Amino acid sequence: MEKTIDESKQGNNLVLEHKEENSKKLFIESYGCSMNFSDSEIVASILSEQGFNTTTQLEDADLVLVNTCSIRDKAEQTVRKRLEKYNAVKRTNPKMKVGVLGCMAERLKSKFLEEEKIVDLVVGPDAYKDLPNLIAEVEDGRNAVNVILSKDETYGDISPVRLNSNGVTAFVSITRGCDNMCTFCVVPFTRGRERSRDPQSILEEINDLWAKGFKEITLLGQNVDSYLWYGGGLKKNFEKASELQKATAVNFAQLLDLCAIAQPKMRIRFSTSNPQDLTLDVVESMAKHHNICNHIHLPVQSGSNRILKAMNRLHTREEYFELIDNIKRIIPDCAISQDMIAGFPTETEEDHQDTISLMHYVKYNFGYMFTYSERPGTMAERKLDDDIPEATKKRRLAEIIEVQQEHSHLRTRERLGQTVEILIERESKKSKDQWSGRTPQNLVAVFPKENYKVGDLVNVKISDCTKATLIGTAVGYSQN
Ligand code: SAH
Ligand code: F3S
Do the domains 169-413 and 9-146 match in fold? Predict the structure, then answer.
């Protein structure tokens, strides 16, 4: 997963599975986080049973679905622009139906139908199994809405249709929702309470992916470290679970063990970790299994204790440093990446300098950095003025990005002269004579193709680098 949340990522409208008997055409595209991309694969699977094959041609579609993101205002504006495009196409194909899925659907509910006349269907993230009924309503000429959030839906029983797949890497969702209530974040409102998926169904999906030739999976959740399976339902009800349920419960460190052992040659990644929930048993489990990649995406959002508190991030800057020190002690070669927010309400220059100095301490491999965007309904919106001028937010963000680029370059330069293990994922975007893949630490490397192929695990000797990419030559297959 290159980016946790990114509204510029889009258009996963490719298809792996095609049923001859299916006559209707579905055009589905996703915006935002990896979870949305993964959810679209579940939706494509549900609709494949309803006579729909996916198409890459918007103009041909009987049904257009857009899986939306609400994390920042800009993400929502991007979707509104896409709806304008669908509107233009609908003029030439009046029978085409348009549905909105995901976080914007959940946030705006039936208001969407009033605000955007093009929309026929509004479906929240926990209601995808109702799509067959909702589509039948729409085909009968009525609008349809289902935005009911669930306490136990995990889609664990659905085998996703892999969209836009390179056949090598895949997402496996392990939890849904989030209970953390960071004050800036809309996710707890749009994705509901946190629930974990049955480990058995996770293992089955991983085994199936291996059998189909996949070589790397990313376990997905808003907050993977709080994964807890004790038989289903909300995590907060664990207190009420029976003794047997408690004794046989599986936490995230144990889930990692199970996955790593079930497929010892499958590379395993996970995202996202919240520092307040990442425990050292997870890091120890990573250290135990060579197939769990040495990378932790560990968003901190701010380096200032005062701002962390206002964000309801339940750790201090000092505790974060202690966590980083422990990770580096247990896994010296572990890459760490971040998410940062510039210009949270009341942020002073001093708070901003705390963020910069925290970055200098950690020296992250990479990060996703944003200006604060006030989201309707969040605690920050209700209690705090969005009082940092846009120009100040942008200037602070630019400073944060500059420091990150310096550290990213430092992290790629560290690899010069080393031999690193690369899983080949695709052709390099810059040259058709080169492969592109990633190290376990999530550094991208490019090198001449020779006789290697996509899906091979190879050792690459690094001779050069840019800020974000390692450049080298393959020296043979990896024995791992
Ligand atoms: N746990 C989640 C985090 C979801 S939000 C995950 O799996 O990725 C992803 C990132 O978006 C956050 O870490 C934060 O840096 C950013 N973000 C969330 N709400 C935001 C807001 N209101 N304004 C700016 N950035 C925000
Ligand atoms: Fe959002 Fe915080 Fe959860 S950033 S997704 S409320 S961990």
Answer: no
- Measured in angstroms, how far is the CA atom of residue 214 from the centroid of ligand 1? 29
Q: Which residues contact 325 (CB under 8 A, 6 or more apart)?
A: none
CA atoms of 159 and 211, how far apart (whole Å): 14
Give this prediction's pTM.
0.95
Q: Which of 370, 379, 396, 397 to mutate to test the pocket of ligand 1 (most atoms within 8 A of CB)?
A: 370
pLDDT tens digits along 96-119: 999 999 999 999 999 999 999 999
Among 55-59, 133-137, 381-385, the range scoring the smallest mean pLDDT is: 55-59
For residues 141 and 279, give the distance between their C-alpha atoms in angstroms, rounded to a whole number.
52
For a ligand 2 pocket test, name from 274, 297, 339 the mutation site with the most ligand atoms within 8 angstroms of its C-beta: 274
Domain boundaries, the chain: 9-146, 169-413, 419-477
CATH superfamily of 419-477: Nucleic acid-binding proteins (2.40.50.140)
Q: Is 35 in the pocket of ligand 2 (CB under 6 A)?
A: no
pLDDT digits (tens, 9 = 90+) for 451-466: 999 999 999 999 999 9
Distance 408 CA to ligand 1 centre (A): 21
Q: Which ligand is nearest to the CA of 180?
A: 2
CA atoms of 67 and 104, how far apart (whole Å): 8
CATH H-level superfamily of 9-146: Methylthiotransferase, N-terminal domain (3.40.50.12160)
**CATH superfamily entry for domain 169-413:** tm_1862 like domain (3.80.30.20)
Among the bound ligands, name the one nearest to the CA of residue 222. 1
